[in-house]
Amino acid sequence: MRPSKHSNKSRQTDYPLICILRDEADILPAFLHHYRSIGVTCFYIVDTGSSDGSREFLLQQNDVQLFEKNGGYPQANAGIDWVNEIGSKYCKDKWTTVVDADEFLQPPQLSIHGTTDALQSELAFALYTPLIDFFCDDLTSAPKCAVDLDELITNTPNYVPFSKFHTERTQAFPFFELRSSARADMSGRRNYLVRSYKIPLVYWQADFQYLRSTHLCTPVPLGDTCGHLLHFKYRSGFEKRLLKELENPDRMNADVYRISKAIIRNQKLLHQNTVVLRNKDAFKESDWLSNAGFSERWKEVNRSKAYYFKILTGKKTTTDSTLEENLTRITTSLSWRVTKSLRAFLFNRGLLRHEHFPERINSNQAAAEQIIAIYESFWWMLTSIIRLPVAFYRAVLWYKLKQRSRKTR
Q: Is pTM, for the whole model, over 0.70?
């Protein structure tokens, strides 16, 4: 990737930020103001075809290095390939922030510098943060431009408390999942529990990369103190932005659209699922920061350092070996090989969304990530028609083998 506009500060930057965006002009002034205020020194921004003045605004910023991509978002693994390319080229051996334009990081210290010092002192390479949705009072209202975080909170004051989140320990990194129930309750889709955490601040090493989304990355030791990522997707002008996304829906699927429309219809339920916050300082009194809230819970469940030490010792777990064996079995199966060329044909012509083209996942990524991508695509279900005769044939062979073994007794 080559930038269309170079930052004057890109060569001496200490704390870079990477962001993929499109049509975020109303929030960009507040976004840049906030991250500059906490210590970001250079912005690597990929604009994927803005038509609302975002590009022109970014070209005027001395600390922004702008890349332009008109299309190709699905082919770039929903932009993650661009993030990893920029990170490996410009951010190696630097503390790097990776966020969307509507995500505002509240670090545990007052600045990124103070936070990274604290992380280094506990031998941590990254910061875990819950992703906390903020809602405006009327999702159908006209867009409002905010110049800083305080004004953005004033316009979008309703946040989802920790009490509205489901928590679960998991067997895979980062070993702890947060899922918000607010969108599910407001949309009427009770099972729509979205993954509500990210790892937005990392020390970018040579072997580091994000996987499938910025919610997941290669395993790194996470700090015992977490930050908070304030998410302003549901700010004023939400309905208008939703309709505009439909003109070029490469960043949205049908399910997300239906959920978003349902939330707009049911926004009368907003205050049953949120708490009002009138300024950012008042957030310190929320259940996210109380002794009985999320911060204490995170300290109890953070297993990332022990897991990273196991990786450093070079010892593979039995799970890793099993996953690699299963991946080989799946990708060499007849059903998968027969349909591979068809998948590639449809994907290259823009007729197949990226989540249904598992081959987009690089072979050097974790086996678990590659297997998940296969199982989550509808091709795994479609190819069952081919797999069923094979399964039946194996069952017959197994039955005959058992019959023979009985006769020899």
A: yes
